[in-house]
Amino acid sequence: MVNTVLDGLAGIGRAVLMLCRAAGALVLFALVGLSHLLRPPFYGRMFLRAFIEIGYFSLPVVALTAIFTGMVLALQSSTGLARFSAETAMPSLVVLSITRELGPVLAGLMVAGRVGAAMAAEIGTMRVTDQVDALTTLSTDPMKYLVAPRLLAGTLALPLLVLVGDILGVLGGFIIATVKLGFNAATYISNTLNYMQTIDVVSGLTKAAVFGFLIALLGCFNGYGSRGGAQGVGAATTSAVVAASVLILAFDYGLTELFFAR
Amino acid sequence: MNGAAAKIRVRGLRKAFGAKRVLDGVDLDVPEGTSTVVIGGSGSGKSVLLKCILGLIEPDAGSIEIDGRDVLRLPRGERAALRRQIGMLFQNGALFDSLPVWHNVAFGLLAQGRVNRAEARTRAVEMLAQVGLPATAAELWPAELSGGMQKRVGLARAIAAQPAVLFFDEPTTGLDPIMGAVIDGLIVDCVKRLGGTAVAITHDMASARRIADRVAMLHSGRIIWSGTPEALMASGNPYVDQFTHGRRDGPIRMELRG
Predict the structure, then answer these.
(1) In this complex, do A137 and B107 lie within 8 Å of one another by their Cβ atoms?
(2) What is the CATH number of the domain that holds B74?
(3) Domain end: B162, B183, B206, which one?
(4) Bridge pairing between strands B61-66 and B20-31
(5) What is the predicted ipTM?
(6) How far apart (Å, rounded) are the C-alpha atoms in residues B167 and B47?
(7) Residue A90 has pLDDT above 80, yes or no
(8) Interaxial angle between packed helices A198-224 and A117-128, expressed in degrees from 0 to 180 and rounded to the nearest 10
(9) Same domain? B133 vs B102
């Protein structure tokens, strides 16, 4: 009886220790990666490749996500707000939700699924086929060549994506409001602009930069540490996406607290 | 050992992964200008030994001297400089599949800033010619190459920066016997052209006899025998005999479970 309890406790202890070790390794990995951004040589081509992959090729999926989110927000909030005759608040509700919250979070989650997974799979495959070791033997630091450019690209590309997403999200709301719900177009736009403040957009884009960094970090970290062939790469890909998604939601709360809590 | 200065001298090298001791006090001398082949069963730690010397794995104890200087106790910069003289051919080539063949071959030269991109292509074609590949191969992608061609490109990449020492990780594994012999021949040529210090690990006895000036056998994490390839087949050592003759019964018990 006592032994069962102790075994259970030991299991919990082991899990906690493993979590701490992983967190420590992740932070160390991030610091080493960042330090390479400050020391030459710099790999501009690798940065450009990652930037285009994240920024340009994620545009369709982010755009679709944003526009449908704006549309459904308009539809939901107009019926919801109608219950207490506050339909006129709808444009500001849409723009605040999109810029502060849904733009960065949904874009982050979509990009985590698309880019984080691809990074983990690519670096993981390079790891298990000795390509990462081969870099070292060819006078190239893999952290500098593979990881640092991706971290920078993620951090810079996601805010740009989210900016596009913000605009399209508001557009989605605008379309539904004017075409379906009978709003006056000019009123909708002036309502939107009147209630939107700089901090709404800035906080959203800051979140996006942090999320972009997290996505690239988790993708690289899991790929870099993957072991054991196809199965190992698969596991690395999964944990890159899951960990990035969870961290995005956790950091989203933390950053919101930082920006808006009084 | 035989008068020639040791290019690489390994002493008491130990490495364990968890409870499993892979290297348990390895002593190995690689005299300058010779090819040393390390033989041993699968899982005997041959790859780990090479990776320790290359600095890809940090050993737990022991010393690794290159040109008489212990790389494990040197500052990072000098360590990298000493190891820069080693070129490595990986078991499956380890070509960068996101880069065309010419960029693969010239990668080390570009990384060291010794050529610009325009020169890199010319140098790559020269290197490819040395391993018997036509200039048209330079524009292909690694995925378009057969196993033997990938090995050749890997070899061209390893020799491109003209390293003083070449490492080969199972150079003939996965190739048919003829292609194996061709690759062995190329290896011998390249090593000779570069001044000739090489370390190869293999469990292909035919390949070992073609490449080696000296043979060392790794078993249970230690070097248990070393000598010339002529002495190898009649070593009198029961472990070596069982391995070289591929007998199922003998002192070596294959661990089916790690």
Answers:
(1) no
(2) 3.40.50.300
(3) B162
(4) unpaired
(5) 0.86
(6) 11
(7) yes
(8) 20
(9) yes
